[in-house]
Structures are given as structure tokens and as C-alpha cells.
Design goal:
InterPro entries: DUF4402 (IPR025514). It contains one helix and twelve strands; from the N terminus they run E-E-H-E-E-E-E-E-E-E-E-E-E. The protein is mostly beta strands. The termini are far apart.
């Protein structure tokens, strides 16, 4: 008999906002010096801001004895189930993030390779393969905004039911 699993990544995002890279960083408490380029000074004066528009949610599934995976594609939003996992409905939703900063600036986005989630009874599930829909060299638009989506792969063990939650650190820094 399948065990009901409701893996959800609600309340998942805890953001770590990185300061601009060393090439453009400056002491925020120090006076403005003449060293460095104008572009580097502008970037240092325009801090990055990250807003979570949509939290990642893998939906509801039931896992049989051998468990399986739920894969959520960040580009298409399609959810694929593999192994001994069955769809119980609900909406799977990719995470959506808005980054604001210096218009036209190139940024780097970092997601962890894996994140452990926990249910109320202390059992864990793992999200791996976190990926975005961004190209190789993302830039903030002329309005200073960049919106991207992300998804990943939830590994579900057969004997673990419940509502799983965790935090996915998203790091953004100027290139």
C-alpha cells in the first residue's frame, strides 16, 4: 500500500545576499575614494535586492515502498515522477525570484547542489539538481531587474510521509 507523502517546498527560501565581488566592493562605512572605476562605484552604491515571487512547491505525491523522485523543470514547469511515486494532485510550481540592482549589470546566481528538507517527525528528504531558466551570462535589464525561475529534483523515500519543508539559499552577486 502506498504511503502518502506530501512533499512541499513552501517556506523554502532563505536568501543569502552576497555583496558585490571583490573587484567592485568597497567599504560602506569609509569615505568615497578616487580609486576604482565609475562603474565599480555605481555597483557598490546599488546593492542587490532579492524578492521571492513564488516559492518552489513539488505538489502532492504518494510513494510506494521503494520511493522515487519528483522532478520539476524550471523552463517548462513540467513535473515528472519516476520510481514508485504516484501523483495525488495539487499544483507543482517552480520558484520565481526577482533580482534588482544596477541596470545592465551582469550577475552570478548560485544555488546549492543539494538541500535537505524535514517533516514534522524529523524525517528528511533531499532536493538535488537545482537549476534555473537563466542563460550562461545573466544581466539585469534596463530597469535594473532580472526575473528567473528555478526547479529541482525531490528524492522521496518510501517510508517517509508528511509535509516537508526546508530552506534553499540563493546567492546573487555582481559579476
Amino acid at each position: 500500500m502506498p504511503i502518502r507523502v506530501k512533499p512541499r517546498l513552501l517556506s523554502v527560501l532563505f536568501l543569502w545576499l552576497a555583496l558585490p565581488s571583490a573587484a567592485s566592493a568597497q567599504c560602506m562605512l569609509c569615505g568615497k575614494g578616487d580609486s576604482g572605476s565609475v562603474a565599480a562605484n555605481r555597483k557598490a552604491e546599488t546593492p542587490l535586492r532579492i524578492d521571492i515571487e513564488t516559492q518552489l512547491d513539488m505538489g502532492r505525491v504518494a510513494a510506494g515502498a521503494s520511493g522515487g523522485e519528483v522532478d520539476l523543470d524550471p523552463v517548462t514547469g513540467a513535473r515528472r515522477l519516476s520510481g514508485d511515486v504516484r501523483d495525488l494532485g495539487g499544483f507543482a510550481v517552480t520558484g520565481t525570484v526577482t533580482v534588482r540592482g544596477e541596470p545592465g549589470a551582469q550577475v552570478r546566481i548560485f544555488l546549492p547542489t543539494a538541500v535537505d528538507l524535514e517533516n514534522g517527525s524529523g524525517r528528511t528528504a533531499r532536493v538535488t539538481g537545482l537549476a534555473t531558466d537563466l542563460g550562461a551570462a545573466p544581466r539585469l535589464g534596463p530597469d535594473g531587474r532580472l526575473i528567473f525561475r528555478f526547479g529541482g529534483r525531490l528524492q522521496v523515500a518510501g517510508a517517509s510521509d508528511g509535509d516537508y519543508r526546508g530552506r534553499i539559499p540563493v546567492t546573487v552577486e555582481y559579476q
